[in-house]
Specification:
15 strands; 5-stranded parallel beta sheet; binds the ligand N[C@@H](CCOP(=O)(O)O)C(=O)O; Rossmann fold; binds pyridoxal-5'-phosphate; threonine biosynthesis
């Protein structure tokens, strides 16, 4: 299996190189040169298997040649051993044809743990083999950062810097990033929004001198391995509901388009996914793009679902690449227009392609709060605001096929919003009960590439 860049000008790489490289050297994102497929029989055989076994079977074609079956099994087992739920990703029924896929039973209470715990294992194995050390820089709107810190804290050959938008993540999210005491962990509060944090991260990757000097590595969804690990739970959910003999629809609360892109990969692998529904909060650039065929950036408006306060949706580039028949030059031009002119028109053929696979909707702040309250009353399920955006949009898209809505975070990560909607302040799990008492440690930085690069150079352990 080879991986190629969406902008067509970077070398093709194997799996481990792709994982350790992060952003392609032409500024693009790596994708598989061809998505492997599974037969209906192979998919049917997944039903009822433990999550770890499904992960091994779904991921093997992507990693084969780089990780032996025995190694992959060992690393997958280690990745999910710390999850609180035996099913890892349990399904709950919300209505006659509507199911919630709970993805918040990992160590940091968000879906990010599914991929981050696994790439933590895979990257450590790769580093042990190569003897290298790396500097991870990540950008977060709240959840990627804590998941990355949890996966890499205390490692002697890895330094971790997480850029988060100052004042724009929940207090629990911030404390998850600022309270780990290990000296390889650095939480950096940037004066800017998530888009600016992600842009500075990409700037660092595009500065090849800096990138090589510090051994820069990425654990955002820039890193394709992150997204591939997220493909697995689409298979566990769909086969539990009757796939491959039955089609399922999926609604995904969306910001950076990584989680829904994983659903698109699952579908391309042969999983019978009907509609993939993009659910956005008031930062609805993806909903507008799908509705109008034009992508135009607006201002990032803070919301009660802060992890989705994103206007520059990195992984959209990956699906556009397919929508344009894998024409890297066109993608490079579109991404330049997004950056220089604030937007671009999607060509008619590409727009048709997108509409063939994706539906979309948005939830206002009031609709999100109302959905949290209504779902609690009707089902007893307490949703986080991101999951509530998903449920609101899914309810408008229910059809004949079972609908799976992804519940992406635990309500206790957003206690203020949940309490405002329901009067209930969800408690943190006991293992995190002292989070508010732990001392915090963070560095404040301007939204400035040079300042951030200096900080990384000075604080990383050479
Ligand atoms: C809780 C939560 N829900 C939804 C999303 C959106 O996911 P994606 O950025 O993969 O679209 C995020 C951020 O990634 C998140 O942290
Ligand atoms: N919502 C994310 C934003 C970063 O997304 P990623 O999937 O590219 O890591 C977050 O919580 O940080």
């Amino acid at each position: 299996m080879r991986y190629i860049s969406t902008r067509g000008q970077a070398p093709s790489l194997g799996f481990t190189e792709t994982m350790m490289t992060g952003l392609a050297r032409d500024g693009g994102l790596y994708v598989p040169d061809a998505i492997p497929t599974m037969t209906a029989d192979e998919i049917a055989a997944l039903a009822g298997l433990p999550y770890e076994e499904v992960a091994v079977r779904v991921l093997t074609p992507f990693v084969a040649g780089d990780f032996s079956d025995a190694d992959l099994r060992r690393l997958v087992a280690a990745a999910y051993a710390g999850f609180d739920h035996p099913a890892r990703a349990p399904l709950k029924q919300l209505g006659p044809n509507h199911f919630l896929l709970e993805l918040f039973h990992g160590p940091t209470l968000a879906f990010k743990d599914f991929a981050m715990q696994l790439i933590g294992q895979l990257m450590q194995a790769a580093l042990a083999a190569s003897g290298e050390r790396i500097t991870i820089v990540g950008a977060t709107s709240g959840d990627t950062g804590s998941a990355a810190i949890e996966a890499f804290r205390g490692l002697p050959n890895v330094d971790v810097f997480i850029l988060f938008p100052h004042g724009r993540v929940s207090e629990v999210q911030r404390r998850q990033m600022t309270t780990p005491a290990e000296d390889n962990v650095h939480a950096v509060a940037v004066d800017g929004d998530f888009d600016e944090c992600q842009a500075r991260l990409k700037d660092m990757f595009n500065d090849h001198v800096f990138r090589d000097e510090v051994g820069l590595a990425g654990v955002n969804s820039i890193n394709l391995a992150r997204v591939l690990a997220q493909v697995v739970y689409y298979f566990t959910a769909a086969t539990a509901l009757g796939a491959p003999h039955r089609t399922v629809d999926c609604t995904v609360p969306t910001g950076n388009f990584g989680d829904i892109f994983a659903g698109y990969v699952a579908k391309a692998m042969g999983l019978p996914v009907g509609r993939l529904v993009v659910a956005t909060n008031q930062n609805d650039i993806l909903h507008r793009t799908l509705a109008t065929g034009e992508q135009r950036k607006g201002r990032v408006e803070p919301s009660i679902s802060p992890s989705m306060d994103i206007q520059v949706s990195s992984n959209f580039e990956r699906v556009l690449f397919d929508a344009y028949g894998r024409d890297g030059a066109t993608i490079a031009a579109q991404m330049k227009a997004l950056s220089d002119e604030g937007g671009f028109a999607v060509g008619q053929g590409a727009w048709e392609f997108l509409k063939e696979h994706f539906d979309s909707g948005r939830a206002s702040e009031d609709e999100t709060r109302a959905t949290i309250a209504r779902t609690l009353a009707a089902t007893g399920e307490l949703l986080c605001p991101h999951s509530a955006v998903g449920v609101h949009v899914a309810e408008a898209h229910l059809g004949d096929a079972p609908m799976v809505t992804l519940a992406t975070a635990h309500p206790a990560k957003f206690p203020d919003a949940v309490e405002q909607a329901t009067g209930i302040r969800p408690p943190l799990p006991t293992r995190m009960a002292d989070l508010y008492d732990r001392p915090e440690r963070m560095t404040r930085s301007a939204n400035d590439l040079a300042a951030l690069q200096t900080l990384v150079r000075e604080k990383r352990r050479a």
